[in-house]
Amino acid sequence: MRANCWMGKNKLEVQQVPDPKILNQQDAIVRITSTAICGSDLHLYGGFVPTMESGDILGHEFMGEVVEIGSKVKNLKKGDRVVVPFPIACGACFFCQKKMFSLCENSNPNANVAEALMGHSPAGVFGYSHMLGGFAGGQAEYARVPFADVGPLKIPEGLSDEQVLFLSDIFPTGYMGAEMCDIEPGDTIAVWGAGPVGLFAMKSAYLLGAERVIAIDRVPYRLRMAQEKAGAIPINYEETSVLETLKDITGGRGPDKCIDAVGLESHTHGLVYAYDRAKQALMLESDRPIALREAIVACRNGGTVSVIGVYGGLIDKFPMGSLMNRSITLKTGQCHVQRYMQPLLGRIQKGEIDPSFVITHRMNLDQAPEGYAMFRDKQDECEKVVLRM
Amino acid sequence: MIVDRPVEEVYRFWHDFGNLPKFMTFLESVESTGDRRSHWTANGPAGAQVEWDADIVVDEPNREIAWSSAEGAPFKNSGSVRFEPAPGNRGTLVRVEMEYAPFGVVFPSVMGKMLGVDVGQRIQHDLRNFKQVLELGEVTRSDASIHAAMHPARPANGHA
Q1: What ipTM was estimated for this complex?
Q2: Which of A133, A169, A212, A289 can bridge A188 by disulfide, Cβ–Cβ 3.0-4.6 Å?
Q3: In terms of CATH architecture, what is A2-169+335-388?
Q4: Contacts of residue A25 in chain B, CB cutoff 8 Å?
Q5: Is A209 in a helix, a strand, or coil?
Q6: What CATH architecture is A171-332?
Q7: What domains sit in chain B, N to C, each tagged with a CATH number?
């Protein structure tokens, strides 16, 4: 089969590789019909995530048709059309029983490596480094899907790939970001990052009863999408002071809840950015937490900061005093996608949201390397790339 | 390590030494050859096989099993596993200790080098395998983890 392979920092190649086979009794093999490039794939692309190996197949947002099942798979059969969640979860362990699927204890064969880096290991993830399992990803013609009875969601007739594909990651991730805010009627929610996950966080905040949503970014077309497609008030941090503007909008109090949908490659202007960029280059700090710092300082007293942007390691200059003295709650986590797929499918079926609104580019699998570069460089107003077979 | 199964089941599974190769990476086979004696075959470096006999020296049902290599083993080794109910009915807490004493001195790193790995990490890894075998029926595998050496996360030719 053909697959999009990571060949080193900023280097991708679509290569011919062997087809996947059943390795565990609960596996399924899926023939992929649509797959997407995630903002978090850009962290791999740029070499910000350790334990990548040359030749790794990328991709963790995919869907397709079941073509083979292992001997212990009961809920799926050949021909079923499924969306596959990005965290791999066994469904049986302590954390899966608590519906904290991205913390599954049994799905990461390289848990020792993750433990050494993070203290404890999270779940395995498709196409996302060896410390998260060394699983081949879904930017390929076929993928092996472990625990096929636990993760994949069967898609009923009448829904297109583009309407349901994002149930694999970015819609549930944005939704969980909003859900962690425990939104109360009247709340103003500020979202840092108007990428695809940010847009889903904004839409979800409204679905969960927010009064107002504010979008903070620096890319004009992304702010325009946030305004037009997600009904957010845009703030361009390159043109105006975010803290001042947020105070202005909220009568000095600050947004009730803040969502960081940016993560470890955050940007800003001036000295602080130069400081973090330099420390990151010197390996004194692995992640640039500029959006997170601002979200904490901006948040109203007693508010909540919800972090769904991806971090990998250590951060610097964390405003702990602001967090502690102002009783701010910090909530975070990789999305427990399996928990949200069915209810969010329900919202799609009821017409409450059509997730395809984020798609700006449709390409073939062979064009994946181009798609990555375009998405990273924000060329051609690129917001979300879907690769079709 | 906490295994989400009752103590009786976890003890019983370990007590059947034929099960050990299902989760101990370096073991090829363990056969019961007598009341307390078993015959162990392990994979050493470069495909070399090492064999020895071991005896159960402690057997307290649902609490502890300990074993030790018999006279004539190529290197002295012993191990013990203890079981206790995890607080709050959350399964079974399993603790393993292993000692390798090639010269009569406890010196894990020598055996570790023989096996090509860090012994502490290997025990931890095997215990996690043990948990998966009990909770899921088999060890979870990935495209990379099925290879002994580093391998990119992609399917390989010739693997079942």
Answers
A1: 0.89
A2: A212
A3: Alpha-Beta Complex (3.90)
A4: 137-138
A5: coil
A6: 3-Layer(aba) Sandwich (3.40)
A7: 2-136 (3.30.530.20)
Residue where the block lists tokens 């986590």: A333
Nearest to A146 among B124, B131, B140 (CB): B140
User: B99-156 pLDDT, tens per residue?
Assistant: 876 544 444 555 555 555 567 888 899 999 999 999 999 999 999 999 988 999 999 9
pLDDT, tens digit (0-9, with 9 covering 90-100), for A235-264: 999 999 999 999 999 999 999 999 999 987
Tell me whether residues B131 and A72 touch, CB distance under 8 A. Answer: no
Q: Which residues of B touch A54 (CB under 8 A)?
A: 152
Name the B residues in 73-102 with CB < 8 Å from any A CB.
90-91
How deeply is A207 buried, as exposed, middle or buried, from its count of CB atoms within 10 A (0-12, 13-18, 19+)?
A: middle
**Domain parsing of chain A, residue ranges:** 2-169+335-388, 171-332
Contacts of B90 in chain A (CB under 8 A): 94
Can you read off the two tokens belonging to residue B84?
Answer: 């206790």
- Report which residue type is found at A274: A
- Asked whether the beta carbons of residue A134 and residue B145 sit closer than 8 angstroms, the reply is yes
Terminal C-alpha separation, chain A = 11
- Chain B touched by A135 (CB under 8 Å): yes
